[in-house]
Amino acid sequence: MTAGSITRAGMSGMNKNQKINLIRILLAALLLIVFSFLPLTGTLRFCLYMIPYLIVGYDVLKKAVHGIVHRQPFDECLLMSVATVGAIAAALAKSGDYTEAVAVMLFYQTGELFQSYAVGKSRKNITELMDISPEYANIYDENGGIVKVDPDDVECGSLIVVRAGEKIPIDGIIKKGSSSLDTSALTGESLPRDVNPGDEVISGCINTGGVLEIETTREYSDSTVSRVMELIEDASSRKSKSENFIAKFSRVYTPVVVYAAIALALLPPLFLTALKIPFLWSTWIYRALIFLVISCPCALVVSIPLSFFAGIGYAGKKGVLVKGSNFLEAMSEVKTVVFDKTGTLTKGVFEVVSVHPNDISADELIHIAAHAERYSNHPIALSLKKAFGNEADGCNVEDAEEIAGQGIKAVIEGRTVYAGNEKMMSEAVKGGVIPECKSCHGHTGTIIHIAIDGVYAGHVLISDVIKPHSAEAVQALKKAGVKETVMLTGDRQSTAREVAAALKIDRVYSGLLPGDKVSKIEELINEKQREEDRVAFVGDGINDAPVLSRADVGIAMGALGSDAAIEAADIVLMDDDPLKINTAIAISKKTLAIVRQNICFAIGVKVICLILGALGFANMWTAVFADVGVMVLAVLNAMRCML
Predict the structure, then answer these.
(1) Would you call 340 a catalytic residue per the annotation?
(2) Computed from CA positions of residues 546, 547, 551, 554, in that sequence, does the dihedral angle turn out positive or negative?
(3) Architecture of 322-345+469-574 per CATH?
(4) CA distances (Å), origin 593, targets 599, 600, 637
(5) Catalytic residue among 340, 552, 570, 627
(6) Average pLDDT value for residue range 350-360
(7) Which of 184, 385, 434, 507 is the most exposed place for a label (fewest CB within 10 A)?
(8) Mean pLDDT score of the chain, rounded to an integer?
(9) What pTM value is reported for the model?
């Protein structure tokens, strides 16, 4: 690749302002080189050298003046302006060599261009990684043809068509067609997802197979893709403790170094004058100017927010949506992870394992149980209806009533039926006594008891399935430094303990209502050994919204389609894989490590160079490295968060 092609390739990735700044830098550098070979002296030399200086530095001078006028003078523009103008004045009075002053401004602008390009590049990379916004939606026109319209113009309940290779523009339910969906932009999962009529699909996925007809269940503004993009845009507004520290540090640091530079220029000469020791004012003024250039806080101000922005973007690529850099920082401090059970550690897909009737047939027991749950969408109800498989058999169901924390009461063909837990049976069965089932011992699952007209009719054992990666995720968290894992569930004690034992979870609390879970989270927060330790709660994002809000870090599991998850959680895992929790912790720790490296490196180098400058052992080129060089190295280090 030639030098010209490299330049064109570099400029092709720049915006208009960056291209203009690059041209200014190259022109100023060229003029500086040319003038250095010409035998120029006096006023002509001064005027000619001011041309490249103003070409490359006029905007810095303008910003410095603007800050002074608006009483906000203490920033890097003022530091650089005072330093270079002072260097020009010193050269005018002494040597007439303006090369150093122009070169300092030139290198400063080169560093600014580099950091601007780096920030823009990281934003572009993140946008590409999260490029899930559809450009159009296909709908049928009056003649049955397909036309493209703006997704914002599609109403809820409309029928849209998604062809192979197109993005699903709006959340909906498949009415016709089968296909495979590429969900990698949303979930980070490379394996395609097969979908069929009746399946729910979310916007942002790419249709890789046949034509799909989808009935929209939301408007575009409420769809998954729209909410995800809003969260990405809003994430930068939630600052981490490190970013807030740097902002406060800069507000104090800049005026301090300005006053320190003034003191360096005045106090030593006054002291030497009092002692009648000969000196040159220009020496101390030059040291003060070097001090100002070294002190520019660009490396900190630029690299710290860039590190968090890059970390959040990389997390998005891996299927972890972080709602702010403060939450990314908090994840690195998590020492206790609390799990909901159903839908988080287990699939939440229940199946009927066995049927145990009492004086009626197994088919009749399933028939009664399925019809009692006819109007419920609870996973247990769905599993019973699926096991029966003949819901439309003409059986009459009346007065179906859900009793919170117990089960369902309904009138079926004139008979009063109760389907629920043991607590419900204590009132539904005459005498309140139900027979013990020995065959259910040792089986993980939920027992649904059925009573008909006060007589115990039997029970059905329903089992939830543990997710393939749940055990691996719990062990990975321990290796990542999490001290304790806890499970909170509304399920019965025996089932909860069996799941916890299988996954090697440290503590388990069962039989909890949503309010009880909040109380337990508060207890765990109060038990923290250190103030900086954090308690994270991982739930399905719908029933667990109150707990997600109360935890130090709320993590919604596989709940992109849930308004409750988006609102309540601090972090949303774009699929239901619990291993992504460890991914989030790993990314947060890497990001925080890079942030600390940049803080220590930038402050350490500047302190050393400031001392050397004050003692006269550093020249203006050392100052340029301490400012521009440190900033470039810090920005390069920050970009590692994207890898």
Answers:
(1) yes
(2) negative
(3) 3-Layer(aba) Sandwich (3.40)
(4) 10, 11, 11
(5) 340
(6) 86
(7) 507
(8) 82
(9) 0.69
